[in-house]
Amino acid sequence: MSSTTPLLDVSGLTKHFPIKGGFPIRRTVGHVQAVDGLDFQVNEGESLGLVGESGCGKSTTGRLITRLLEPTAGKISYQGKDITHANRKQLAPVRSEIQMIFQDPYASLNPRHTVGKIIAGPMEINDINPAGGREKRVRELLEIVGLNPEHYNRFPHEFSGGQRQRIGVARALALEPKLIVADEPVSALDVSIQAQVVNLLQKVQQELGIAFLFIAHDLAVVRHFSQRVAVMYLGKIVEIADRDDLYENPRHPYTRALLSAVPEATADDTPARERIRLKGDVPSPINPPSGCRFRTRCWKATDKCASEAPPLVQVEGNKPGHLTACHYPETHEATTAPVLSKEPVA
Ligand SMILES: Nc1ncnc2c1ncn2[C@@H]1O[C@H](COP(=O)(O)OP(=O)(O)OP(=O)(O)O)[C@@H](O)[C@H]1O
Ligand code: SF4
Ligand SMILES: [Mg+2]
Fold it and tell me: Is the CB of 78 under 6 A from ligand 2?
């Protein structure tokens, strides 16, 4: 692999779930367009944040990349190798290098297995025997994630939520992965615990050089964790940029609306952002709006937005690598969006 090849390269990635209906013969009567043509890369050791409202396709994207789901279309390359439709055997060497951490630390750990068995699970499945044995490695991993190695024989219910998520992190690290897809890894945890787990993941990313696709609902969590951020809306990436470009110069109206809800996004020396009120609900991914999918909630939508889907490109004024899918990108000037308040967002 040359140094310019991204670790993960995704192009045109699409997942349409068929909807079955009809009687007596069940036929496909439509599709949920959960993910619809994503293009993005993750470089070695970097963290890409993937952000968007509930139902926009974040988990589906994570499950496609880890190949828990079969893509409908598009291409996934890992270290330059096409793994889009790789079978079990072809995937085996890659499986250990791409791991997933799930949102719910309660549901993702087998309650009948000891912590030792859970963390050693991936080593067993992949028939990996580290020097010194699996138990020694598990104890090391417990230490790395800040748990007591002596708790090797305890069961998940004996741990708190934050500790259980640490167990999930230890399990993901067992095979020395190069990429971890973390699907809302802290949103099920108490706010007071969230920062601790984010810090642990940050340590893992920096010290072990592991790349992350970090999935989150809002822009607050990824701000401290991801060097680059992609914003999704209804199955599409609407904006992607280096973190600072995105937070300081959001060009897509949806990014701007999301950012207006993040209190800490406002630097001390700049006036507080006005909180933008989006009208209506997210449309159904079964029958998304024509043209720009955001147009039913956008305060700037025109006929062009209804007829032409805006491509994800480096619009005028964007730095290299900052791509925006909008016909009328935002500028720094005051927005005409309906605002909730001019007060600093509490
Ligand atoms: N197995 C499935 N069959 C049919 N539809 C599905 C399936 N999995 C997900 N979907 C639909 O695909 C869309 C995207 O779901 P997904 O779980 O990827 O969203 P998400 O962004 O992770 O949301 P959340 O923030 O709530 O976790 C939703 O409309 C969801 O209902
Ligand atoms: S393309 Fe049109 S509808 Fe879509 S975000 Fe831009 S201005 Fe709004
Ligand atoms: Mg999800």
Answer: no
Query: Per 3-state DSSP, what percentage of the chain is helix, strand, and coil (rounded to 5)?
Result: 30, 25, 45
Q: State the Cα–Cα distance between residues 296 and 4, nearest whole angstrom.
A: 39
What's the whole-model pTM score?
A: 0.92
DSSP three-state, residue 12: strand
Q: Whose CA is nearest to atom 2 of ligand 1?
A: 17
Distance CA 196, CA 218 (A): 18
Ligand nearest to the CA of 290: 2
CA of 302 to the centre of ligand 3 (A): 31
Q: What is the pLDDT of residues 170-228, one digit of tens each?
A: 999 998 899 999 999 998 888 888 888 999 999 999 999 999 999 998 888 898 889 99
- 198 neighbors 22 (Cβ within 8 angstroms): no
Bridge partners, residue 228, by sequence: 48, 242
Q: How far is the CA of 322 from the centre of ligand 2 (A)?
A: 17
Give the tens place of pLDDT for each residue, 109-148.
999 999 999 999 989 988 889 989 999 999 999 999 999 9
Distance CA 132, CA 283 (A): 55
Pocket-testing residue among 32, 65, 219, ligand 1, by greatest number of atoms within 8 A of Cβ:
32
Q: Does the CB atom of residue 257 touch ligand 2 within 6 A?
A: no
